[in-house]
Amino acid sequence: QILKVVPNHVVGQYLKAEGLLLKNQIDDARLLFGKAAAAERDALYFDGLGRANETKANASKEVKYQQQALDAYKTATQIDPKLISPYAGMGRIYMQRNDYKAAIEPLLVANKADGSNAEILLMVGTAFYYQKDTGQAANAIRWLKDSVALKPNADAYYFLGILHGEANQGPTAVDYLGKAKKIAFDEETKL
Predict the structure, then answer these.
(1) pTM of the full predicted structure?
(2) Tens digits of residue pLDDT in 111-154
(3) Residue 96, SS3?
């Protein structure tokens, strides 16, 4: 409605871009988020631009959009360090790049603000899992257990099974791997 009254209103562009992103009209959303961010340096606009670029990167598999998303998320955190969404976005991008060490810091910031987000807990645990050779196995176990306590997840149970197996805790490993298999099977049969 704002854009009908004032066609180039920044808030209207931002809100329209949010709607377009929900409708999976990614390129149009990227354009409007970009216009809003260029017109007014607001963390929400850059976060939206980051989410739109991240969605584009996931859909197209083009790395340049990952970098654009990362740049937008970083700008959003510089403008408003209390806005949590861009930290989670940076963590997701680093995880997709298999840069697990870089993923941890922004994910810990996001977790500090929202300790009940199972997705963030899973990403932190996974990042520590892939650094287990550097002594991070105990951290991985802690974060993965916290994740499955909130929302059971096949990947988390699988990693827990592997970690416990490597620690010569066979029965615990078998239990976790069984849970991973059951969840994965249940998810497959839903498709």
Answers:
(1) 0.89
(2) 999 889 999 999 999 999 999 888 899 999 999 999 999 999 99
(3) helix
